[in-house]
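ARCHIVE CARD
Drawer: 12
Card no.: 0347
Subject: one protein chain, sequence and derived structure
Cross-reference: see card 0346
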Amino acid sequence: MVSKKCLALIVMLSAISVFLCSNVANAHPGDTDDNECHYCLENCDEWGLKEGEYHCHDKLESGGYLIEPNLWIRAVIHTEEKGSVEAVWQEGGRDKTEGGDKVIWGYFYASPDDVNWGSEDNPDVFVKIWFDRGGRVDVNYFHVSVPDIYVFSDYPYDKNYDEDGTVTTSRRYIRQFYMNSESYSENSYEDGNSADDTLLQSDPTAYSMINNLKIGAIINTENKGPIDAVWRKGGDAYTAGGHQVLWGHFYASPGAVNWGSENNPDLFVKVWFDAYGRVDVNFFHVSVPSIEVYSDLLENGNYNRSSTTIMDDRYIRHEYQQLVNIETDFGDILMWLYNQTPGHKGNFLYLTKQGFYDNLIFHRVIDDFMIQGGDPLGTGGGGPGYTIEAEILPELRHVYGAVAAARRSDSVNPERSSSGSQFYIVEDSQGEPHLNDAYTVFGMVIDGMDAVETIASVETDENDRPLENVYMKNVDVVLFTEEQLLNSYEFVIP
């Protein structure tokens, strides 16, 4: 079947237009899936697509949601596991402004029946719909996921969609709007960076989230100037992969401006706590005035990051990398933990945040070999009461500065499971290749090997125990951006 726009051309332009419209599908051929979606293969530029982009241009509505008598919306998520799946709509709220505008907001999510990461508390597309008092209707889609997502709308509803498009990790925003009996669409490519990322001077109300995160926002209104935005939490959940998600939105207080309402979001927020330790704080501008956004992961009293979102730069991402710093009397030791060993990385971060390592000692020290610690007994025989499954990888070697997990011998531990807390740092400048493929390497020292070398050279007894205890005084999770790691330590994230 042909789209509503094509039907209009048929009436106006007769048989020639019939031919043109009926061949829309052939303009970008590709094998269709169960949802009649496909990848664009030819003439993609003519349709605003990239070669190989997932596309549902010729699909008529068979799903979707009629959220108003005359407005229909739909989203199809192209998953890696199951191909394209229908997204589930969840309305968040609706309201009318003092001036007579109407707003509806909500989100689409993947059904947990389709994919294991699907959840009502893991939004994939935020949606804000604005019925302007002047008659214009805006349907705003904001991509907050990983897979490509195809979005549709139809107004007035007649079972043939008017507008469609794909939101992706680079094309984060699509606006489909209707005015004067015509439909239009525009999109925005976003990289998550602010055009001006200098530290802002405001100090908005800090809203504490989970995992020691706090966020805040300032809305720069035309009539009242800068005002504190109000936070409304939507939900939080864990995915099957061990990741944690939190989401909600900021809005202007109705006591500050007449368009302010808990159900008129100005800034959507989705926070992703990756199981490997990375934290992404994603802000999506869904208003008109500029909005300053702030985040602080460890709640140290000051905001770590601040940026400004505007209509032409709607998506801001504050990304944090979690490293571990060991404070000793001989200097600090800063360690990067590998994403390739998620079990060991996650466990080490967890124990660190619990204060497990504070004031433990390096109980075994051998010069030109390694230093070992992490035993709460200080004897080499203690731990947290569990072991970790081995994650021995051929690309992670026992080089100078490598951080690896201690374990019991093969005779009693043929699976080579790691100690739940004990670790060692390779101090030999030539590395220790004889340990490769036998112990799990899960990190590396990126700064502070001078402290490691000093500790390795202290005087020890016949059991390689320092004659005077060498304490890990404080062991903390510390935060860096990718740029800070490069500029301060010349470290490139592997």
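Annotation on reverse: The chain has four helices and 34 strands. The chain has a mean pLDDT of 87.
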